């Protein structure tokens, strides 16, 4: 495993930091989630991104608890900070405590995961995924014309825009310090959603400032080719309720196969290169797809015309899709697929023994007790 031997202290949060910790654990890192004591047995845990992790519950409002948290971080290679700017600093757990010539763990990779970033007009604001991608401007790319912008659940911001960049930066820092002895490993990584999703949208930003026509971005939002405005790049309903086919037949040769699958004569159709014809073609395609059940279209476009770029929209909650997904390319690891719940303090005793060498109850911590459920 690529990250065997790497120790991670993950302060408990929601979505991005837990996902980043899960990815680190999937690649072999030993991830300890630091939960706040007193949060036990208050209902089902909200964090289900717990595969491969352990938990210790600490009273971060007590002097003893802070010292235990420091002890855990001091033996860690990576710290995941999911809080708004200044929270860990006010607890006495900021970067200056650990990094630098006077720090207690100068090799620590201190990774901050925030929505708005450490500075700027929104940095101290509360927010969620929808707010962060709105502030980035990227959400303005999504949604039908003439209506408020839509957003892709919290996948773009929380996960693609924060968890994954944090994971990548951590791994890059570990790699750089290992392959280049002049690069110190200890570093503060400030990763935020606003900057990250802007980076992901770099291509769209560039073509908008160039000649957008060849790239299909010369229309208002929702009317451009890659936004569902083109009849050959959108989803279509079938005769089967709530089942759809995705069409991405941009290239002429793929478009020709799409028409064959739909049993349409290309000579009888208006020219697709003329944007004014898009609504006409869309109506024709909609009626065609609605005329047959999903099974028919799957058969046509998998057996006869697989290069038409036409595949069904799968339900992510279907039984076939709800199965454990582990680190790509890792055939050796066999995580427990049933681990979706990690109660705060579930591993307090064993972690205290590892870090402090103490086996009995320790002030400032809390051990989860199943008998209380």
From TrEMBL:
It comes from the Eukaryota. GO terms for molecular function: catalytic activity. Pfam families: CoA_transf_3. Belongs to the CoA-transferase III family. This is Alpha-methylacyl-CoA racemase. It comes from Tortispora caseinolytica NRRL Y-17796.
